[in-house]
Automatic annotation (TrEMBL):
UniProt cross-references to SUPFAM superfamilies, sorted A to Z: Clavaminate synthase-like (SSF51197)
Organism: Thalassobellus suaedae
Domain Fe2OG dioxygenase: start-end pairs: 168-274
Name of the protein described by the UniProt record: 2-oxoglutarate and iron-dependent oxygenase domain-containing protein
InterPro entries according to UniProt: DIOX_N, IPNS-like_FE2OG_OXY, IPNS-like_sf, Oxoglu/Fe-dep_dioxygenase_dom
Family the entry assigns: Belongs to the iron/ascorbate-dependent oxidoreductase family.
Matches recorded under PROSITE patterns: FE2OG_OXY
Gene3D superfamilies documented for this protein: B-lactam Antibiotic, Isopenicillin N Synthase, Chain (2.60.120.330)
Coiled coil location: none
Top-level taxon of origin: Bacteria
Pfam name, any one: 2OG-FeII_Oxy
Keywords, in A-Z order: Iron, Metal-binding, Oxidoreductase
């Protein structure tokens, strides 16, 4: 499989059962094979996406001292700014060549979760950044909810199975800036090969080249979505919950050829996480003689903490 299939969310949302089933089958098959799809018909419109990119660029252009004033100690980088080189992929010692920001959940109707999550960090210099970040967060979350509904049907679960776990979930919108490369990097790359931690990841298509996905044969293929598509992949939480039926595919961001070292790269993944109490225990329907239970029982919160330690974002 050398192609990332394209699907249209309008098929799922339409009242036509045939189209809906076609969407469910296509996304399920893609996730059993390559682990990625390109999705049209999502809820993030062009104007909002353009404004988000504009504001994100303004943010990363702020003086480094200003950005660092938004780096909050003690929360594992879960909100606000994370400076250059701090995060490394699981198993790597070199930090990735990136700086990033985290917008988190906007809890309005659950005091317990509101207290559990760190507050969102407000950038005083850029009122629009805060506003556009929240709007984009909510539109991507809505898109992800429908994708998970389709996957629930594919897995033989109730269509609304994931809804209770993702309402006020611990999702994160992460604008990333990969700065220009100024000297021959030793071992470090923009983002070393990794699987995402969460249930599913939504990535806007507009970004430049660089993202690559590893297929079953171990070959790296370029993942390029069209401007109106979101690239959506399975993360390790969903892969675990489905006993590896849905694949969390390894991907990376390679450094550009030398003539493009002078250019920045921006990308804005939305990592869909459930609430921390969700049990990621392997679903009964995903276990049979050929596929024995491959993972220990664990909650989403425990799994996240384990991985943030491995990424260097929380200290043991
Ligand atoms: O920058 C990209 O295109 C992808 C980044 C990524 O895979 C990640 O942050 O998990
Ligand atoms: Fe990723």
């Amino acid at each position: 499989m050398n192609m990332i299939p394209s699907v249209d969310l309008n098929d799922f949302i339409s009242n036509d059962p045939k189209k809906k089933q076609k969407f469910v089958d296509a996304i399920g098959k893609a996730y059993e094979e390559i682990g990625f799809v390109a999705l049209k018909g999502h809820f993030l419109d062009d104007t909002l996406a353009d404004n988000l990119y504009k504001e994100v660029k303004h943010f990363f252009e702020l003086p480094v001292e200003t950005k660092q004033s938004y780096e909050i100690p003690g929360i594992g980088g879960q909100r606000g700014y994370v400076s250059f080189g701090k995060e490394s992929a699981k198993g790597k010692k070199e930090g990735d060549l990136k700086e990033f920001w985290h917008f988190g959940q906007y809890v309005e109707d659950d005091d317990k979760l509101k207290a559990e999550y760190p507050d969102n960090v407000i950038v005083n210099e850029l009122p629009e950044f805060n506003k556009v970040g929240k709007e984009a967060y909510q539109m991507l979350e809505k898109t992800a909810k429908y994708v998970l509904r389709a996957l629930a049907l594919y897995l033989g679960l109730d269509e609304l199975y994931f809804d209770v776990y993702i309402h006020n979930g611990n999702s994160i919108l992460r604008p990333i800036h990969y700065p220009p490369i100024t000297q021959e990097p030793d071992e470090a790359v923009r983002a070393a090969a990794h699987g995402d931690i969460n249930l599913i990841t939504l990535l806007m298509g507009a970004q430049g080249r660089g993202l690559q996905v590893q297929n079953h044969e171990g070959e790296w293929i370029d993942a390029i979505a069209e401007a109106d598509e979101l690239m959506i992949n399975v993360g390790d939480m969903l892969s675990r919950h489905t006993n590896n039926k849905l694949k969390s595919t390894i991907h990376r961001v390679i450094n550009p050829p030398r003539e493009l070292w002078g250019t920045s790269r921006y990308s804005i993944p939305f990592f869909m996480h459930p609430i921390s109490d969700m049990k990621l225990n392997v679903l009964d329907g995903c276990v049979d003689e050929e596929n024995p239970k491959a993972f220990e029982d664990i909650t989403a919160g425990e799994f996240l903490t384990e991985r943030l330690i491995e990424l260097g974002l929380i200290k043991k």
